[in-house]
Automatic annotation (TrEMBL), chain A:
Top-rank taxon: Eukaryota
GO cellular-component term (any): mitochondrial small ribosomal subunit
Family (UniProt): Belongs to the bacterial ribosomal protein bS16 family.
Pfam families: Ribosomal_S16
Organism annotation: Penicillium angulare
Keyword Ribonucleoprotein tagged: yes
Keyword Transmembrane set for record: no
UniProt-listed PANTHER family: 30S RIBOSOMAL PROTEIN S16, SMALL RIBOSOMAL SUBUNIT PROTEIN BS16M
HAMAP family: Ribosomal_bS16
Protein name: Ribosomal protein S16
InterPro entries for the chain: Ribosomal_bS16, Ribosomal_bS16_dom_sf
Any GO BP annotation: mitochondrial translation
This protein's UniProt keywords: Ribonucleoprotein, Ribosomal protein
UniProtKB/TrEMBL annotation, chain B:
Coiled-coil annotated residue ranges, if any: none
Pfam family, one: Bot1p
Protein name: Ribosomal protein S35, mitochondrial
GO biological process, one term: mitochondrial translation
A Gene Ontology cellular-component term: mitochondrial small ribosomal subunit
GO molecular function: structural constituent of ribosome
Length: 104, 380
């Protein structure tokens, strides 16, 4: 069975929060994963605009990632889901996912 | 004479009476108050139009109260206990019968601008400015932030609530910017530490010197100082220098959830420990004022340097741990932080309460009845 690196949704209604988990592909989203390797908060945060240095900074989303474990699981063939692929790409662990619409 | 309430015939007459002068209102009264009306009152069930307290109120309004009717612009208009003189210093108590209600003073516009100039433009340390003007260091930090915000808003052409600011400065006492600085507030205050709340009976030998360092160790149930250790700190404020340079020197005691730092003497925990040392120097060398001040300045500079390096190092560590990614065409940045999911950080079953991320197999009590869901304290 395929091992995937994917997001598991936590939090309440309108207040999503994700654990980045390594799990069997066919297991439930809320089931216990093989391992948790990070978190992703999709609600953008805005830095306090009280300071001049923060005036022009953009809102940001927080990602926490155990890079060593992510590398290990990628090395043994775990397949990231699309959203996780984007995050891992931003962390510099994988190449961007090849897309059909970019080829043409 | 005090004006009367017209009980039946004229309604809502109170307002014009309070604002009009006493002579005009009394003439109005005599014309409308006929003798037949007073005869009819014998069988009236309505309350008497004039009580003693009401009469006294108008008496006061026409005598002492006249002084308070119009305030002097730029000054407070607080009630004084007796008759107010022009010479007497204004009181900080707006309610003369409530001695416990004291209006605390606020910084004047000039003073707060001066604080900003000294900290940001002249690059003086917050500690030095705090001692110079007698303003708490936290307040200095707040002033710098807010003046920065104000200047930015001015440069953007945003309107300022100046009438409001002026009104507030007339309602509360104001600390002015003077040649000889007027101290705004006590700056070396220390909140009572919770672990000093216990009453401990601690027998010790009379020959032994028992200092604040020892008291702190007793309060936190740490082992007693050995003689050699005690000899290193003849006065508790000597410890402040050591702890300031190496905060990790503070010992830890206890186990598990009770693992805590040894309570340090007040000499170490106060915001300005160097003030104590300067005072000790002054007492020890009363003749050498210049030398004492030089040593104090030297101590301040050293302290500032240590604080500066510590701030820079902390900032660098924080920046290094965060990888900021700005995706093309996106509205948001991504801050990718290093996290470590090991046995040590998540516990042997991955359910440790301190583990990063949300946990499995542990109920979240965030919607349970009887659980406090709002934050109950703010970290200082």
């Amino acid at each position: 069975m395929v091992v995937r690196i994917r997001l598991a949704r936590f939090g309440n209604k309108h207040d999503p929060f994700y654990n980045i988990v390594v799990a069997q592909a066919r297991s439930a989203r809320g089931g216990k994963p093989l391992e948790v390797i990070g978190t992703y908060n999709p609600i953008p945060k805005r830095p306090v605009s009280l300071y001049n240095e923060n005036v022009n900074t953009r809102p940001y989303k927080e990602v926490a990632l155990d890079q060593a474990r992510a590398k290990y699981w990628l090395g043994v063939g775990a397949q990231p889901s699309d959203p996780v692929w984007k995050l891992l790409n931003m962390a510099g662990l994988v190449a961007p996912k090849p897309t059909t619409y970019n080829k043409a | 004479m005090a004006p009367r309430i017209q009980s039946q015939r004229v309604s809502n007459t109170l307002l014009p009476y309070l604002t009009s002068s006493s002579t005009s209102s009394s003439s109005f009264n005599t014309s409308s108050c006929s003798p037949s009306l007073s005869l009819a009152r014998q069988f009236s069930a309505t309350a008497a139009p004039q009580t003693k307290l009401r009469r006294q109120m108008f008496e006061w309004l026409n005598t002492d109260g006249v002084n308070y009717k119009h305030h002097v612009p730029g000054e407070m208009n607080y009630l004084a206990k007796g008759r107010r003189d022009a010479d007497s210093a204004p009181s900080n108590r707006p309610f003369p019968n409530n001695r416990n209600f004291v209006s605390e003073s606020v910084l004047s516009e000039e003073l707060r601008n001066e604080v900003y100039v000294q900290v940001v433009e002249q690059k003086k340390s917050v500690r030095a400015v705090s001692v110079q003007f007698g303003i708490d260091m936290k307040r200095i930090a707040a002033v710098v932030r807010l003046v920065e915000l104000e200047r930015r808003q001015r440069s953007q052409g945003k309107p300022m609530a100046m009438p409001y600011a002026r009104a507030v400065h007339e309602m509360v006492p104001v600390t002015p910017l003077a040649e000889r600085p007027v101290f705004h507030e006590p700056i070396n205050d220390l909140p009572a530490h919770p672990s000093t709340g216990a009453q401990i009976f601690y027998p010790t030998t009379e020959s032994r010197s028992f200092t604040r360092i020892d008291a702190g160790r007793v309060f936190s149930a740490a082992p007693e100082f050995q003689d050699a250790q005690r000899a290193a700190y003849p006065h508790p404020s000597d410890l402040a220098n050591v702890i300031f340079k190496k905060p990790r020197k503070i010992e830890w005691v206890g186990k598990g959830a009770n693992y805590r730092q040894v309570l340090q003497p007040a000499d170490v925990r106060i915001p300005h420990p160097q003030q104590v040392q300067m005072e000790r120097d002054r007492i020890a060398f009363p003749q050498e004022r210049r030398a004492v001040l030089d040593r104090h300045a030297e101590r301040l500079a050293k302290q500032e340097k240590v604080e500066q390096t510590r701030r820079e190092r902390a900032k660098k560590v924080h920046e290094d741990s965060i990888n900021l990614v700005e995706p093309e065409g996106g509205r948001f940045d991504f801050r990718i932080k290093d996290a470590f999911f090991t046995n040590k950080t998540v516990g042997h079953d991955g359910r440790a309460p301190f583990a990063p991320g949300r946990r499995y197999g542990v109920p979240t009590n965030d919607r349970k009845r009887g659980v406090v869901k709002i934050p109950t304290f703010v970290k200082a």
